[in-house]
Amino acid sequence: MTGSHSRRKLGITSVALITYFNVSGGPWGSEPVIAACGPLVGILAVTIFPWVWCLPLALTFAELFTAFPTDGSFCMWVGVAFGRPMGFQVGFWSWVAGVIDNAIYPALIVDTIMALYAGDITGADGGDGVVLSLLQRFLLRAVFAVLFMIPTLTSIKIVGHTLLVMGLMIFLPFAVMIAISLPQVNPANWFVVREDRDWGRLLSALYWNYSGFDAAGAYAGEIQSPKTTYPKAMVLCVVMIAFTYIIPFIAISGADKPHYTTWDDGSYSVIAQAVGGTWLCAWIVVSSLFGNLGLYVAEMAKDGFQLAGMADSGLAPPFFAQRDEANGVPRRAILLSFSIIVVMGLFDFTTILSIDNFLSALASLVEMSAAVKMRFSHPEIERPYRVNLSDRNLAIAMVLPFILGVFIMLNELTKSWVSFGLNVGVLLFGYGCQRWIQRHPYHQYEVIETPRFQDLTLEY
Q1: What are the residue ranges spanned by the domains of the chain?
Q2: How far apart are CA 248 and CA 262, in angstroms?
Q3: In this predicted model, what pLDDT tens digit does every residue of 43-61 receive, in sequence order?
Q4: Could you tell me which of 263, 297, 373, 449 has the fewest CB atoms within 10 Å of its CB?
Q5: Contact of 423 with 358, CB cutoff 8 Å
Q6: How far is CA 162 from the centre of its chain?
Q7: Strand partners for 219
Q8: Which segment, 4-8, 47-51, 108-112, 414-418, is predicted with the most confidence on average?
Q9: Residue closest to 61 by CA, chosen among 272, 239, 282, 212
Q10: Neighbours of 403 (CB within 10 A)
Q11: CB contact set of 103 (below 8 Å; sequence gap of 6+)
């Protein structure tokens, strides 16, 4: 069963939620946006960034997702634009980045539970209250990895419903924290600019919190009425993400407890403690569990459907194209991602996570370039949804996102010699895989429903 099966189940809300959790998943990790350059710059950044980065990418990608309505969509249209080898590379980079990113969530869940158990809900004690052996930590991570893989094995529609519940569990405590913070706001705090501004940290944090819109193409074969669903879901997702950061930032930076210069990843629990007390801090920490679970479920589904789509088009072994006849879930592809995640539970993630941002930025750059090129090189392709920009204006709209992507890619590549070596190693391994597939091509057997798309072939 290929990615063109007829069981298209996902509507606007489900697509928006799955994409939201692949891109954001909640306010956590956004604290450095304020800390890097101060509240004024941070608030302006999260107000502007969704419209100059997120919306152009989301709608441009939606145009091509509707033109190539199959799982692993972006691999297909990049392959048409730049050739089959590049289609494989983009798929490989995206899949590796996704699996690495997803491996961190079981670890974060275990660390959070241990901190709660030890009474160290703010993380001030470094989580030393409970000491686990390497085996115990690995087994706990594996247990959570198994438990929260289950929704992804049932149906993609169940994934959407699961993420709706996760979203409600996340936003309720933040709504309470915002309400408690507002009476403590000093408006003068919003206009503070940090003297020792760190623009690199700011841009890296922004990219980390706003990247991943191509994930919506990983399961394009599961979307009801792609022509209308994709653009509406992408706009809804961008709006959700914008409010995820803007509203909390206005409240907490205005209160400025503790001082914004002390904020880092994970500081929301400390902020909650300062503005509302221990009960609010504990509630925020518990909600972070649901945030990590939502991120894990969404990423697992995305990686599984993407690999299955690559297998459909001959970019991965046909073994992974198999889908469950009852619900269309690519269980083999999901189980491969899960197996790698479990093994990675043995390792520390601090260094290896540099691969994630680099590969994600690199894939986005190629996808942006392919989207613009397709407007000029393949104007004949049927596009059920089309961004209301001329070819030239679309290219202009991509300039700023492209420059930002180049900066992020180079910044991640040059962070350290270890980071440089890991990223170059992954690129070389991907090239080796592509050369092997080129010499031993898999049989391509997918039948695409879109007539104009059916006539296209991916050539080496």
Answers
A1: 12-439
A2: 17
A3: 999 999 999 889 999 999 9
A4: 449
A5: yes
A6: 17
A7: 71
A8: 47-51
A9: 212
A10: 10
A11: 340, 341, 344, 345, 349
The closest alpha carbon to 363, from 21, 91, 68, 57, belongs to 91
**How many Å separate Cα 359 from the centre of its chain?**
12
**Fold assignment, 12-439:** Amino acid/polyamine transporter I (1.20.1740)
Question: Dihedral angle at the C-alpha atoms of 373, 378, 382, 388, nearest 10 degrees?
Answer: 40
Residue type, 341: I
Tell the residue number behind the tokens 């991120």, with chain if given.
295
Distance, in Å, from the CA atom of 304 to the CA atom of 71, rounded to the nearest integer, reads 10
- Write the pLDDT tens digit of every residue in 321-340: 888 888 889 999 999 999 99
Map tokens 């115990």 to a residue: 136
Quick check: helix, strand or coil at residue 71? strand
pTM of the full structure:
0.87
Name every residue whose Cβ is closer than 8 Å to that of residue 315 and which is 6 or more positions away in sequence: 72, 75, 79, 84, 87, 88, 91, 437, 442
Q: What angle do CA 228, 456, 229 make, to 5 degrees?
A: 10
Alpha-carbon gap, residue 187 to 153, rounded angstroms: 49
Preceding peptide of 258 cis, ω within 30°: yes
Provide the token pair at 162.
Answer: 């699961």
Total Cβ atoms within 10 A of residue 210? 22
